[in-house]
């Protein structure tokens, strides 16, 4: 084996944190001298990690691919005793926690050997306890042990914020200072903390009011009165290494790439960075502190921890936060543990395909791995699992979901459903239980004509009233299904009119996903609201959601008149001169119309050439109906577009929103705020007819079974958790899934569920 080791090349990065088929790691929290319970085998052929239980599976998969993977390095990490002085009772905010080296935390035990072909048992040839090891063994083992790997989540915490220079900083030119020295208090209110210095003129104003920090926004008001004074610096943040710069024009943090103009501007106000020591928390520290406070109540009124539930088939297992993955954790818990009742991956089975050598890159393998841990054998993971390989695999083609940034849980649910349906479940999908059909009824107020259209849906997204008042779900739903008045070009009246647009349930899903749109623009910035929303089934599971009043009545031919098709009104009129000339050549009228339409309706010769090329077409002389003009459907009302752009919204997104919402400005504005990450591109392919209908034709009551809650000022920050209704000690109770923690919820959590509920899952009874 020593000779074999000399010939192999060790990669610089090896995924050695967990088995590729399960979530077993090499780490042992309890010191064990001889035979640790947990270990991993690093395959020396492909450098993937497998546990002892799955080593034979990997061997068989490799054989099926035409190669034999028999040589392995078995690794076990045994925790060293901790020093007593390392008691960390006092929490301290740190942007980067400097971790100990792994060798200081764990003792590494290893064994180098191979699988016996007959028994597939591991036979050790060299171990870490041996003396006089060959140089090749020592060298290669050390390379593997010290190759780069993922940080251990339970050992480290790293918060990162990317700050880039903005155009206002890049074009900054200091003005003539109004003051020779920066004031020590707000010039408007006298506040002596949370002070911001305008780099343009030297004005000192207080900042915004934040949790634990007083402020009256006088620095912002100074900018509003002086729009060219965009850049301000927080005086309490200044030191040789730190400074909080804010651009009010961009409404975001910024920085100087070249600090010389910044230092010069500060000097003109009598500030020398060499003499400064930061006296207040920076913006990032405040953000971190706020994120730490954005947790959900985990203690009762007496301060006791909530009742912890064991990992097992009744409640699944916890999911460890990868840094900003609570949005993913909450959605997965609802899917796998009963929030979406009857959602199941049983159709995939428990066995891994025997032709996939690299399961980390295979979505089916990742789902089997996840399902086995969360549903089949969750009792093995009392401390939770890290869904890192699944997150990487499912989100690898998506710019946002492949990143480490916090994401919108509702967007992720939609992305996950679409991804699984496209890549795995093309015929029958567990996601079918979310799908239903919405009817859209449009009635012209002038002629009374109606138009019915039907759209597939996977969720009911309900606009919330633009205030902070308590709301009731049934009232919000009633307002949504009552419809609205919109501007509409009637194909019968052939002029812009006011029309009533009213949605209704055409079919009903097994699981109704309700997403209250808790986003509203504040100073043109989308801000999440926390209206308290009363909803059926929260406190008493017998209280059901009845949506039968929102059912579609369908078209009534005795009382209603259908509007003509929009495209039928735009008749194609063949060029008269060309038509006459082509008719003289003996071509039939329908063939002439077809040729002129295909060639631009201008040139006789071009149309004639087209006819000669298509003379054998079977439908050449069939009655010709011009196809719908795709470009006409891409047109939007210019005034509506201009009004939306004037609000500071992206023009491309506004254009797409107006098309998708049929010109409805209010719905379009809401769509833009809910889809800021959209690329604005519209598909040019014609919509395909649905080959399958989803949902039930008759309504039924719905029971509230799952909730994804969110705390924070934006759906892209803060913290997500899941509440799922379970049978606990013979009673139906809410269970809180807060990353790796699974506890029984208490009545005090109800307020959080009403104020912070972002996704409500109602299951059909």
Automatic annotation (TrEMBL):
InterPro entries: Papain-like_cys_pep_sf, Peptidase_C19, Peptidase_C19_UCH, UBA, UBA-like_sf, UBA2_scUBP14-like, Ubiquitinyl_hydrolase, UBP13_Znf-UBP_var. Its EC number is 3.4.19.12. It comes from the Eukaryota. It is an enzyme of class 3 (hydrolase). It catalyses: Thiol-dependent hydrolysis of ester, thioester, amide, peptide and isopeptide bonds formed by the C-terminal Gly of ubiquitin (a 76-residue protein attached to proteins as an intracellular targeting signal). Residues 164-273 form the UBP-type domain. Signal peptide: none annotated. Zn(2+) binds at residues 186, 189, 206, 218. Keywords: Hydrolase, Metal-binding, Protease, Repeat, Thiol protease, Ubl conjugation pathway, Zinc, Zinc-finger. Residues 317-765 form the USP domain. GO terms for biological process: protein deubiquitination; proteolysis. The active site is at residues 326, 719. GO terms for molecular function: cysteine-type deubiquitinase activity; zinc ion binding. One of its GO terms (cellular component) is cytosol. Residues 563-614, 635-675 form the UBA domain. Transmembrane segments: none annotated. It holds the Pfam family zf-UBP. Belongs to the peptidase C19 family. This is Ubiquitin carboxyl-terminal hydrolase. It comes from Zygosaccharomyces bailii (strain CLIB 213 / ATCC 58445 / CBS 680 / BCRC 21525 / NBRC 1098 / NCYC 1416 / NRRL Y-2227).
């Amino acid at each position: 084996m020593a000779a074999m080791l000399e010939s192999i090349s060790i990669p610089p990065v090896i995924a050695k944190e967990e088995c590729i088929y399960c979530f077993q790691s090499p780490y042992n929290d309890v010191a064990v001298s001889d035979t640790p319970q947990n270990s991993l085998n690093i395959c020396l052929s492909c450098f993937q990690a497998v546990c002892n239980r799955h080593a034979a599976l990997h061997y068989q998969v490799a054989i099926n691919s035409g190669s034999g993977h028999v040589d392995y390095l078995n690794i076990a990490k045994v925790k060293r005793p901790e020093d007593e002085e390392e008691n960390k009772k006092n929490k301290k905010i740190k942007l980067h926690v400097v971790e100990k080296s792994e060798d200081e935390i764990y003792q590494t035990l290893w064994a180098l050997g191979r699988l016996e072909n007959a028994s597939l048992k591991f036979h050790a040839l060299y171990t870490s306890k041996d003396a006089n090891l060959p140089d090749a063994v020592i060298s290669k083992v050390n390379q593997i042990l010290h190759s780069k790997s993922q940080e251990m989540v339970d050992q480290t915490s790293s918060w990162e914020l990317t700050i880039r220079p903005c155009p206002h900083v890049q074009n900054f030119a200091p003005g003539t200072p109004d003051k020779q020295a920066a004031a020590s208090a707000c010039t408007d209110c006298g506040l002596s903390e949370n002070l911001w210095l305008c780099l343009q003129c030297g004005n000192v104003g207080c900042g915004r009011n934040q949790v634990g920090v007083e402020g009256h926004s006088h620095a912002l008001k100074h900018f509003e009165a002086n729009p060219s004074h965009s850049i301000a610096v927080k005086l309490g943040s200044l030191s040789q290494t730190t400074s909080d710069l804010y651009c009010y024009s961009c409404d975001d943090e910024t920085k100087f790439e070249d600090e010389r103009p910044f230092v010069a501007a500060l000097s003109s106000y009598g500030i020398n960075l060499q003499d400064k020591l930061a006296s207040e928390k920076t913006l990032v520290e405040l953000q971190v502190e706020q994120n730490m406070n954005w947790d959900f109540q985990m203690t009762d009124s007496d301060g006791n921890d909530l009742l912890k539930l064991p990992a097992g088939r009744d409640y699944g297992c916890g999911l460890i936060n990868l840094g900003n993955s609570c949005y993913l954790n909450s959605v997965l818990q609802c899917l796998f543990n009963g929030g979406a009742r009857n959602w199941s991956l049983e159709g995939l089975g428990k066995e891994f395909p025997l032709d996939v050598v690299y399961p980390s890159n295979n979505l089916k393998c990742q789902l089997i791995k996840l399902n086995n841990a969360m549903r089949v054998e969750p009792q093995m993971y009392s401390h939770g699992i890290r869904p890192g390989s699944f997150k990487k695999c499912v989100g690898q083609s998506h710019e946002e979901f492949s990143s480490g940034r916090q994401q919108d849980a509702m967007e992720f649910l939609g992305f996950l459903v679409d991804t699984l349906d496209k890549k795995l479940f093309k015929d029958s999908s567990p996601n079918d239980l979310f799908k239903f059909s919405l009817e859209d009824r449009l009635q012209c107020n002038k002629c009374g004509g109606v138009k019915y259209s039907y759209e597939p849906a996977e969720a009911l997204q309900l606009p919330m009233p633009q205030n902070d008042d308590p709301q009731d779900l049934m009232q919000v739903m009633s307002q949504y299904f009552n419809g609205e008045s919109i501007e509409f070009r009637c194909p019968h009246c052939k002029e812009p009119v006011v029309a009533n647009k009213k949605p209704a349930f055409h079919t009903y899903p097994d699981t109704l996903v309700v997403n209250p749109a808790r986003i509203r623009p504040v100073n043109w910035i989308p801000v999440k609201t926390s209206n308290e929303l009363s909803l059926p089934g929260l406190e008493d599971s017998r209280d059901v959601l009845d949506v039968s009043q929102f059912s579609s009545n369908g078209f009534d031919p005795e009382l209603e008149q259908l509007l003509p098709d929009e495209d039928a009104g735009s008749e194609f009129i063949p060029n008269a001169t060309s038509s006459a000339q082509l008719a003289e050549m003996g071509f039939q009228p329908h063939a002439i119309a077809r040729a002129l339409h295909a060639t631009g309706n201008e040139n006789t010769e071009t149309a004639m050439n087209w006819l000669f090329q298509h003379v054998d077409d079977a439908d050449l002389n069939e009655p010709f109906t011009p196809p719908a003009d795709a470009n006409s459907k891409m047109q939007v009302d210019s005034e509506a577009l201009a009004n939306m752009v004037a609000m500071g919204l992206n023009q491309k997104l506004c254009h797409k929103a107006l098309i998708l919402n049929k010109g409805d400005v209010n719905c379009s504005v809401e769509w833009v705020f809910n889809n800021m990450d959209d690329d604005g591109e519209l598909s040019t392919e014609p919509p395909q007819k649905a080959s399958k209908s989803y949902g039930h034709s008759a309504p039924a009551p719905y029971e509230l079974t799952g909730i994804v809650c969110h705390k924070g000022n934006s759906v892209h920050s803060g913290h997500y958790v899941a509440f799922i209704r379970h049978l606990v000690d013979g009673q139906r109770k809410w269970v809180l899934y807060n990353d790796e923690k699974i506890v029984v919820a208490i009545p005090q959590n109800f307020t959080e569920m009403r104020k912070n509920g972002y996704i409500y899952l109602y299951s059909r009874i």
